[in-house]
Every structure is written in structure tokens, then in C-alpha cells.
Amino acid sequence: MAKLEILVYPDERLRQVSKLVKAVNNQIVSFISDLEETLSSLPGCVGIAAPQVGRFERIIIVDVSARPQHKNHGHLVLINPVITSNEGNSVGREGCLSVPDYTGKVSRSKYIVVKAQDGFGSDVTYSMEGYEARAVQHEIDHLNGKLFIDSLVGKRNNLKKRTDF
Amino acid sequence: MRNWYMLTLVGKDRPGIVSEVSRILFEAGGNLGEASMSRLGGNFTVMLMLQMEDDKERVVSLLQPICDKLGLLVHVDNIAGGLHHHVEPNFRLSVHGADQAGIVAAVTGSLAELKFNILNLESDVGGSPEKPVYIMHIEGFADCSLASLEKSLQPLIIEKEIVVHLVPIDTMVG
């Protein structure tokens, strides 16, 4: 196990599109445990994507369980995640390990269905909403070389009631 | 150590204010920090952090000709602090109702009692000139529960006949 170094914007490597994981072999399992150690060393952080530590393969970890006020599926390792359907929209505040000392509002789908393989290579499907769905969308963006600061919505607000901040 | 200044500029809105002011400052070796700029009631208002070697008098004299040309009032203050002093908000309020004197004082008075620190406040008057509507958004930090904030705001919601939406902000960091 090892704590990995986080790439920080404007590091160009964060723009790289990550490759599909072909097989969940020992190397991948070992990397996932390093990624888990890295995530757990960062208080307040609910997700991490492999490219944030310079590994350009489609692997994310999301764990919202420390925030029980939000519906969640606990600790999730998602390999090759794909959002197969989405619905609704909500604006919420996001920050990123790779963009320190800045948070901003981003519009995301409120409900998503995500298909992936888990840390053992088995197919999994999750229907999720709100905060957890936001975290998964944020991490999948990293796999496509996209950061939350590419999707900020203006500071000026409207009257719509928002429940997902 | 370079000095940080807060520039305040106010004048009738027109295209080009930001570009002309920022060009003068850039050419004089200034570095811009955080800023808030907005059109308020037909005026353009600028609050801008500027870092420069020069003293305050030199900053004012640098800006005066362009401010005279653009019809801007300029004010420069030395400030303590600098960048990377962000505080994350944990509550957001949206307030609206028929425009009347005292909405801001009443709402922020209740918030201040709970030591709510306002980090950002924006307000507008919309509706028709005959029936104006006051709309305000506040984001801030308070070390108290949502329920205690709601309880504190409840009497003035009834008294002022205003609508207040109060929501927690839970920033997702990934």
C-alpha cells in the first residue's frame, strides 16, 4: 500500500482521456488499494479517479458513507464506469483535490444509472441520486480529461429552490 | 514584499471599463487578485484586489486619468491579507417578497445573532415599478444547525410576509 501523489491543475496530464481497463489483474488490484489509501488519507474527500494520481485507466472510487444524510451505496470501486441513463438536474457546490482552494457550482444530473465492474471484475449496476450521483459524475469527468472548473455555472443565482448543495 | 490594495471603482456603466482599467494596471506591473464586479442600478461597480510594488499615491495617480476619462470614482485602500483565505459556506438563503424597507436588516439581524458569517450577498429589485419585488441570496458560514437558523428566521418571515428558502451547502470534494 502506498499513498499516491495528486496531480494538480494546470498539470496537462489531467486532460488525458483514460483507457479502458481490460482485465482486473493483480496489478490493478494493487493499484486500487493504493488509490483507496490515498482517498482515505484526505479528510472530507468522497471520491477519487485514477488519472488524479497519474494513472490513466478508467477506475474511480466513491464513498459517501461518511455523510449519511445523503442516500448512498457505501464504498464503491467502479472500473470502466458508464452512465447509461440520467434524469433531472441540480446545481451543487463542488471542490476537487486537483484544484485546491477553490469551490464552485456545477449543474449535474440528479439521478443516474451507472454500470461498471467492481474491484473484483464483476458487473455491477447502481441507481443513484443527489450527492452520490454528483460525486460519480465528477469522477467520471476526470476519466475523460474534464475538470469541474470546465462546467461552472455563474455566480449569479436564480430563484429556483435547490436542495442539493 | 509587494503591497495588496483594494480598489473601489464606481461609475455609469458603459462597455470597456474592465478592459481599460485592467490594461493600465497590467502595463504598470500590477497583479490582480480576487474581484467582484457588478452592474448595480445602472452603475458599474468594481471591488478589486491589486498587488503592486508602488505606494498608494502612485496607484491612485496611475488610475486617475483613466477614471476621469471613464467617469469613475476611484478609492484605494491598503489591505491586510491576500489570496488563499477562502471560507467555505455551509448555508444558503434565498429571500424574496414585496419590496419594503427593513428586509435586509431583519434577515441579517437574525443571522448575526447566531454568528452567521455572510460570505456573499447579492440582491435585486425586480417586478414592476408599481409592485417591486425584493430578491436576495446569501451564502455564509454558521456553526449552528439548520433548525436553529429556521427558528430564528421564522418570526420575521411572518412579520415581513417574505419567503425564505434556507438550505445547507454540502460541498462535494472529489
What order do the strands of the largest sheet of chain A run in, or round the barrel if closed?
A: 1-2-3-6-7
SSE-based structural type of chain B: alpha+beta
Distance between the termini of chain B: 35 Å
Taking pLDDT < 50 over at least 5 consecutive residues as the criterion, the unreliable ranges of chain B are: none
Spatial strand arrangement across the major sheet of chain B? 2-3-1-4
- Class by SSE composition of chain A: alpha+beta
Task: Give a verbal description of the structure.
The complex is a heterodimer of chains A (165) and B (174). Helix content of chain A is 18%, strand content 32%. The N and C termini of chain A lie far apart (34 Å). Chain A is globular and about 45 Å long. Chain A has two helices and seven strands, in the order αβββββββα. Chain A has a single domain (12-150), classed as Peptide Deformylase (Alpha-Beta Complex). With 165 residues, chain A is of the alpha+beta class. Chain A has a five-stranded antiparallel sheet with strand order 1-2-3-6-7. A two-stranded antiparallel sheet of chain A has the order 4-5. In chain B, helix 3 runs antiparallel to helix 4. Chain B has 174 residues and is of the alpha+beta class. Chain B is globular, with a radius of gyration of 20 Å. Chain B folds into two domains: 3-78, 2-Layer Sandwich (Alpha-Beta Plaits); 91-168, ACT domain (Alpha-Beta Plaits). The model of chain B has no long low-confidence stretch (mean pLDDT 95). In chain B, the strands form two sheets. Chain B has a four-stranded antiparallel sheet, covered by helices on one side. Chain B contains four helices and nine strands, in the order E-H-E-E-H-E-E-H-E-E-H-E-E. Helix content of chain B is 30%, strand content 43%. The two termini of chain B are 35 Å apart. Classes of the chains: A alpha+beta (165), B alpha+beta (174). The A-B interface holds A 44-49, 62, 67, 69-70, 92-97, 101-103, 131, 134-135, 138-139, 155-157, 159, 161-163, 165 and B 84, 86, 88-89, 92, 94, 96, 120, 122, 135, 137, 165, 167-174. Strand 4 of chain A pairs parallel with strand 9 (172-173) of chain B.
